[in-house]
């Protein structure tokens, strides 16, 4: 690739010379025509080190006479007019930019480099470094990625900085570089390619073994003595003996999840939904450990696991059993992996991809049998026990607690139980479930109620608590008769054009339709705000994530 780029740049430079030559000839012709009028202009010769033909030499000598002195009508002498020189400078700059644009276009088209519109040599160097798997910081500092592991003895290394100035010349011996192993002088042969003064070495065979510790090789100091130094890339340049050499300071540590401008993407693998059974025990600890070791050998960052509300707080309110998850987390710690925990407050089973059945806690199901309005309800009165209705977020119907308080107590228990994992950074993120399938959406498309794609689904606001909220909002607006759901919104498998509410020019765009949709959406947003504000208190200092579904399907 580097050789191709060199050829491309070389060809473009030749084109540049030819175009400049043509411009000079045109200017010579103009000067000859205007010679009788005592008008002449200075020309530029020797662009790129060589413009020449027999005819152009004679023209140059002829024009040189006009260049030395130009007579004015008053008999005096003056230099070339500055405006003409400015125009020529602008013309040369346009040619240079056009050639550069063609070079960058070739890199984008044939080399698949993602270069910005007004890219320069710094961007080209950064793109080359990223393609080689190196880390490029926003300030241009470039160094090998930590994920590449340690370097073997005598392996190749190079310090590259995104700078338009030339680095060490091809003839400069490697010993003049501070921070370069002396082994390069004897055991390593560079395969260099020249591109604007930048040299790229052959890639070294990095050792990706997790058991190998990074080795710090001896390096050459300023006085020729060997010193210990970390072979990281620096962005500063020193000048010694009129030559630019790379000075290598220690690199700053990247903050957690700050991977902007780097090729590193953290990879977490989701564990099976039923890795912990209803007794909160690991289903097959030995097989699970083998699988975790396989993931470790594949250099993944960690695993993601659902912490089911229906398992941990299954039988009695505020009695939490984390035993199975504690054993799992210990395995993860011993393998030096990381964790992303999911607070799953919904039912598992009945949805696409569900291979196990994990219902809501038994004590919640008992409350639901006597008060089914704690679940979402459609217009025909069918209940959906997949998760609790958002209408009871502030209703004390769960043994003296509101739904939001139940969620908060569960998250506080998890934080207290695994405090050491948070302190040690083993748990890097917590995802908070906010609805069916853990997503912030209404359960408007339940398969158990006959929905099939691409049906529009149905509104889920007919439990007594949401209807009470709707009534209160309608009365506050001065329209108590708006305290109802739409009666022309179709059924689960209807199409929008088949309904009077969602068709073009339908009721959704009327006064009542706008009022209802605004209230319906506000209920969803308020639920997310309440739960996430408490999650922020429970998991202070930890990354928090949520799942938001596509609105085209789950708007209801």
Automatic annotation (TrEMBL):
Give the compositionally biased regions (Basic and acidic residues): 81-90
Compositional bias ranges of the Low complexity kind: 59-69, 156-169
InterPro entries associated with the record: BES1_N, GH, Glyco_hydro_14, Glyco_hydro_14_CS
Biological process (GO) annotations?
A: polysaccharide catabolic process; regulation of DNA-templated transcription
Specify the BES1/BZR1 plant transcription factor N-terminal domain's residue ranges: 77-209
Instruction: Cite the entry's keywords alphabetically.
Output: Carbohydrate metabolism, Glycosidase, Hydrolase, Polysaccharide degradation
The molecular function terms of the Gene Ontology recorded here are: beta-amylase activity
Class of this enzyme:
hydrolase
Where is region (Disordered) located?
A: 1-92, 143-183
Identify the EC number(s).
3.2.1.2
Hydrolase found in the keyword field: yes
Stretches of Acidic residues bias are at: 12-33
Give the reaction(s) catalysed: Hydrolysis of (1->4)-alpha-D-glucosidic linkages in polysaccharides so as to remove successive maltose units from the non-reducing ends of the chains
Q: What family does this belong to?
A: Belongs to the glycosyl hydrolase 14 family.
Q: What is this protein called?
A: Beta-amylase
What is the protein's species of origin?
Answer: Populus alba x Populus x berolinensis
């Amino acid at each position: 690739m580097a050789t191709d780029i060199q050829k491309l740049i070389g060809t473009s430079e030749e084109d540049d010379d030819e175009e400049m030559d043509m411009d000079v000839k045109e200017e010579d012709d103009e000067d000859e025509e205007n010679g009788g009028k005592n008008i002449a202009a200075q020309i530029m010769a020797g662009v790129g080190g060589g413009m020449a033909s027999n005819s152009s030499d004679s023209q140059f000598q002829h024009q040189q006479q006009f260049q030395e002195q130009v007579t004015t009508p008053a008999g005096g002498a003056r230099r070339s007019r500055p405006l003409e020189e400015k125009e020529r400078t602008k013309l040369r700059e346009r040619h240079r930019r056009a050639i550069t644009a063609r070079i960058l276009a070739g890199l984008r088209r044939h080399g698949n480099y993602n270069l910005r519109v007004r890219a320069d040599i710094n961007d080209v160097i950064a793109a080359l470094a990223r393609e080689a798997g190196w880390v490029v910081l926003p300030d241009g500092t470039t160094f090998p990625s930590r994920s590449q592991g340690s370097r073997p003895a005598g392996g190749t290394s190079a310090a590259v900085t995104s700078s338009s100035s030339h680095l060490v010349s091809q003839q400069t011996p490697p010993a003049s570089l501070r921070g370069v192993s002396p082994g390069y002088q004897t055991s390593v042969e560079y395969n260099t390619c020249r591109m604007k003064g930048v040299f790229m070495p052959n890639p070294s065979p990095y050792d990706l073994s997790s058991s190998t510790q990074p080795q710090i090789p001896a390096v050459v100091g300023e006085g020729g003595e060997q010193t210990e130094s970390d072979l990281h890339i620096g962005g500063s340049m020193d000048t010694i003996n009129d030559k630019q050499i790379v000075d290598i300071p220690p690199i700053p540590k990247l903050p957690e999840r700050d991977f902007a401008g780097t090729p590193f993407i953290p990879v977490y693998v989701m564990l099976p939904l039923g890795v912990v059974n209803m007794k909160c025990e690991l289903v097959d600890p030995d097989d699970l450990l083998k699988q975790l070791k396989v993931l470790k050998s594949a250099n993944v960052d960690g695993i993601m696991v659902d912490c089911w509300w229906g398992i941990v707080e299954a039988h009695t309110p505020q009695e939490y059993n984390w035993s199975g998850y504690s054993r799992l987390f210990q395995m993860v710690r011993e393998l030096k992996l990381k964790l992303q925990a999911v607070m799953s407050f919904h039912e598992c089973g009945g949805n696409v991809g569900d291979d196990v059945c994990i219902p809501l806690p038994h004590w919640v199901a008992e409350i639901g049998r006597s008060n089914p309005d704690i679940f979402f309800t459609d217009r025909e009165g069918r209940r959906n026990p997949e998760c609790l209705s958002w209408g009871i977020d502030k209703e004390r119907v769960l043994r003296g607690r509101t739904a939001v308080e139940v969620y908060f107590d569960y998250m506080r228990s998890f934080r207290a139980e695994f405090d050491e994992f948070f302190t040690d950074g083993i748990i890097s993120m917590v995802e908070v479930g906010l609805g069916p399938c853990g997503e912030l959406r209404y359960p408007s498309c339940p398969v158990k109620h006959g929905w099939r794609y691409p049906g529009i689904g149905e509104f889920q606001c007919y439990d007594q608590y949401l209807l009470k909220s709707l009534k209160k909002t309608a009365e506050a607006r001065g329209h108590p008769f708006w305290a109802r759901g739409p009666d022309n919104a179709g059924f689960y498998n209807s199409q929008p054009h088949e309904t009077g509410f969602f068709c073009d020019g339908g009721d959704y765009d009327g006064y009542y339709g706008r009022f209802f949709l605004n209230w319906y959406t506000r209920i969803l947003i308020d639920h997310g705000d309440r739960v996430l504000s408490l999650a922020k208190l429970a998991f202070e200092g930890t990354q928090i994530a949520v799942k938001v579904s596509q609105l085209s399907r789950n708007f209801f």
